[in-house]
Specification:
The structure holds 2 protein chains of 2 kinds.
Chain A lengths: L4 H14 L2 H21 L3 H20 L1 H15 L2 E5 L2 H14 L4 E4 L3 H5 L2 H7 L3 E4 L2 H8 L16 H11 L9 H18 L2 E4 L3 E3 L4 E6 L3 H7 L3 E7 L3 E2 L5 H13 L6 E5 L13 E7 L3 H6 L14 H4 L4 H4 L10 H12 L1 H4 L11 H5 L6 H13 L17 H15 L1 H14 L7 H7 L12 H7 L7
Parallel strand pairs in A: 1-10, 2-3, 2-4, 4-7, 5-8, 7-10
Antiparallel strand pairs in A: 5-6, 6-9
Helix pairs in contact in A: 2-12, 16-19, 20-21
Chain B lengths: L4 H14 L18 H14 L3 E5 L4 H10 L6 E3 L4 H9 L7 E3 L4 H10 L2 E5 L3 E2 L4 E4 L15 E7 L3 E2 L2 H7 L9 E5 L4 E2 L7 E2 L6 E7 L1
Parallel strand pairs in B: 1-12, 2-3, 2-4, 4-7, 5-8, 7-12
Antiparallel strand pairs in B: 5-6, 6-9, 10-11
Classes of the chains: A alpha/beta, B alpha/beta.
Chain lengths: ~475, ~220
């Protein structure tokens, strides 16, 4: 069958990534380190299992009352003076951000790390409108300098090594000396960005958890750039996917521990930043305006199906990436979409449609590592299998994934029907085996056979099936 | 265009929850950390030091002398402080020649941006700390603004030894956070850091390069 576009692109990306020795080396050591750090922190397996069960329960409970919690969040935020906006699509979300930026006459925004903003392609959109969007997380800053997108949801520039970054800084940052010393590279970025923080007009951030009980937006970070973006400018815009809400403040500590521990093996990040209101009367700093944009972009569709809904439990720790045998060899860019790795493989086809990203669900060996490390117990393998089935489900789509049946062809459907008939009819399969064993050696090597035998010798076809051989040895069907 | 987004999203979600196909597994009850006062302080100290914070145990009456000694050993262009706090009053009363000048934070950020971003050190109080994760709790306020613990290269935090909690959950519970959150609440576990280049841990990215914690006994 002809390759669909997503498959063709992915195959090309895979070949490129696998052939990039530098990328493979950079990834290998980094992913091993992150996994090791996580293992060390969660060394007590029993305690970790309990914590995971708690994390799963908190996330499931929040999802079970999602509309109520979102309304409560909106009501608390509004009472706290935070302006809440709703967006069905990324286009709407971008328009909301642009409107706020324009209203303040701003020409530049400074950004803390936000995957939702990547999902919105916000930087690109703002640049088109003549507004500079500056990433301030060191990793994001590095890739923005190189015109790239994140290759990992936690450590976005992990595909680059310090030599590559040294060249990049030297070439793209005015007056930056060439240095491969990490501390010095870090100092160059600090120096460069401090000026931007001081002058920042609008700060944009993501949200790790939004607490419905108090209307509090929580941000997890190590660098302090998130605090800068949410404290120094007069306006702060926080972007969140609608699944980020949790019910109570007491839900936060276990999720925080699971998030930082799973992501980088840290018991906690340097900063945990909890924002509840804009600057109150008498206060000397903090933004005078805080906006919260709640984005759907296909999430409510995912929410509709009980099996698919578990995707929304995700707290974006990236542990599934670090442990995935596919991700650790390819890196994030090969996936061709914003969210890579196992979480990307289950999320993206559902958000964008199977016809756009269905191939991502095939980027799995079904080893189940993602499922084993997931801090909120998302059933990855089940969802991956379901998505693969949906790709071929033309009329009988049980889960109604967008773009289902995009790989359905009548030829293939017919082939499987015949195969099923053949295997359930002993007479038919006996004849078939006999015929095949005679002719298979003489089949012309075309199509997949040609492809397969390009580097392999075709094995001789056995005249008898394993089943028959077992019978001859006196084994009966029940053993 | 977005006028109906809210209603559309919520009605889609409500239609789904009406079907009631949600399974919420029961959460296990996890016994949190239960340490003695000494153990809590000890653990906090160890964890903060692992994250490159400098921790000093100081006597409740002698802490200012300790602070002065610390400041004299470095050449700093000033110490940002909050004059309308007990901490600020104590500093004013004890300040003397040979120390970096005390710089009060009393004007809105719009009027003193330059100074905030160039001052070498800032000192703040804390609202306790968490032994389990090794983090300080800060609730910035009208008197003690948010940027004090962020823009100076050196952040000095003063912690009362009696306010070290076992866990984050315990601190929230005992201090009644759910009853009213401040504009901004913070947990801080060390100087600002990053590992974005080859996972090499380096300190002092965008926030303070150094964190000194004075634990007052």
């Amino acid at each position: 069958m002809a390759k669909t576009k997503d498959v063709a692109i992915f195959e090309r990306n895979v070949a490129k990534a696998l052939g990039d020795g530098q990328l493979r080396r950079n990834l290998r050591s980094a992913m091993a380190t992150l996994s090791q750090r996580r293992r060390t922190l969660f060394a007590d397996a029993e305690a970790f299992e309990q914590l995971r069960a708690q994390g799963q329960s908190i996330r499931r409970r929040a999802l079970s009352q999602l509309p109520e919690l979102l309304e409560q969040l909106e009501q608390r935020c509004t009472a706290n003076g935070v302006q809440v906006h709703w967006a069905e699509t990324t286009t709407e979300a971008n328009a909301i951000v642009l409107d706020i930026v324009r209203r303040h006459g701003a020409t530049r925004v400074i950004k803390g790390k936000s995957m939702v903003s990547e999902e919105m392609h916000l930087n690109h959109f703002l640049e088109e409108q003549g507004i500079e969007a500056l990433e301030t997380d060191l990793g994001e800053y590095i890739i923005q300098l190189d015109g790239e997108t994140p290759s990992h949801i936690i450590v976005p520039a992990i595909h680059k090594n310090k030599d590559q970054i040294a060249h990049l800084f030297h070439e793209r940052i005015p007056d930056a000396p060439y240095t491969e010393v990490v501390e010095e590279l870090n100092a160059i970025a600090r120096q460069e960005l401090r000026g931007k923080f001081r002058a920042g007009e609008v700060g944009i951030s993501g949200v790790n958890f939004a607490v419905a009980e108090t209307g509090t937006l929580c941000l997890v970070e190590n660098e302090g750039n998130g605090r800068m973006c949410t404290t120094a400018p007069p306006v702060h815009i926080a972007l969140m996917g609608l699944e980020k809400v949790v019910e109570k403040l007491q839900d936060v500590p276990p999720l925080l521990r699971l998030l930082t521990g799973s992501a980088t093996g840290q018991p906690i990040t340097t900063y945990f930043n909890m924002i509840t209101t804009p600057r109150r009367p008498g206060e000397l700093d903090g933004p005078r305006e805080v906006h919260l944009v709640i984005l759907d972009n296909g999430r409510s569709g995912i929410y509709a199906d009980p099996e698919r809904r578990t995707t929304l439990q995700c707290i974006r720790c990236g542990a599934c990436l670090n442990h995935c045998p596919i991700y650790t060899r390819l890196g994030g860019h090969a996936y061709g979409h914003v969210y890579p790795g196992p979480i990307g493989s289950i999320l993206t086809p559902q958000l964008e449609g199977l016809n756009e990203a269905g191939v991502m669900a095939t980027a799995s060996t079904f080893c189940g590592a993602c499922e084993e490390v997931c801090p909120v117990k998302i059933p990855f393998t089940g969802i991956l299998r379901m998505l693969r089935n949906e790709a071929y489900a033309s009329t009988e789509s049980e889960h109604d994934v967008k773009g289902h049946g995009y790989r359905y062809t009548t030829v293939e459907a017919l082939s499987w029907k015949s195969w099923s008939l053949y295997n359930t009819s002993p007479a038919l399969s006996r004849i078939g085996i006999r015929v095949l064993s005679r002719i298979v050696q003489h089949l012309p090597m075309i199509g997949p056979l040609k492809e397969w035998t390009r580097t392999r010798t075709p094995p001789p076809f056995a005249p008898k099936t394993l089943h028959e051989l077992a019978h001859q040895r006196g084994l009966d069907d029940d053993r | 265009m977005t006028a109906n987004a809210r209603e559309n999203i919520l009605s889609r979600l409500r239609a789904i929850t009406m079907q009631g196909s949600f399974v919420v597994p029961e959460a296990p009850i996890i016994a949190g950390l239960m340490l003695s006062r000494e153990e809590r302080i000890d653990r906090l100290r160890r964890m903060l030091e692992t994250m490159h914070a400098e921790v000093r145990a100081v006597a409740a009456d002698g802490w200012i002398e300790e602070l002065k000694a610390l400041l004299r050993s470095r050449s700093l262009n000033g110490l940002l402080y909050a004059p309308a706090t007990p901490l600020g009053a104590a500093l004013e009363a004890a300040w003397e020649e040979g120390l970096p000048p005390l710089v009060p934070y009393t004007a809105p950020v719009e009027e003193c941006r330059e100074q905030l971003f160039t001052i070498d050190a800032g000192i703040t109080s804390t609202r306790g700390a968490i032994a389990e994760s090794g983090a300080l709790i800060l609730w910035p306020s009208v008197a003690e603004p948010r940027l004090m613990s962020l823009t100076p290269g050196l952040h000095i935090a003063v912690l009362e030894a009696d306010e070290v909690f076992n866990t984050f959950a315990e601190a929230m519970e005992r201090q009644g956070w759910a009853k009213g959150m401040p504009t901004n609440a913070l947990l801080i576990s060390g100087p600002s850091k990053t590992a974005d280049i080859e996972l090499t841990l380096t300190f002092g990215v965008h926030g303070p390069k150094e964190l000194v914690v004075l634990i007052r006994f």
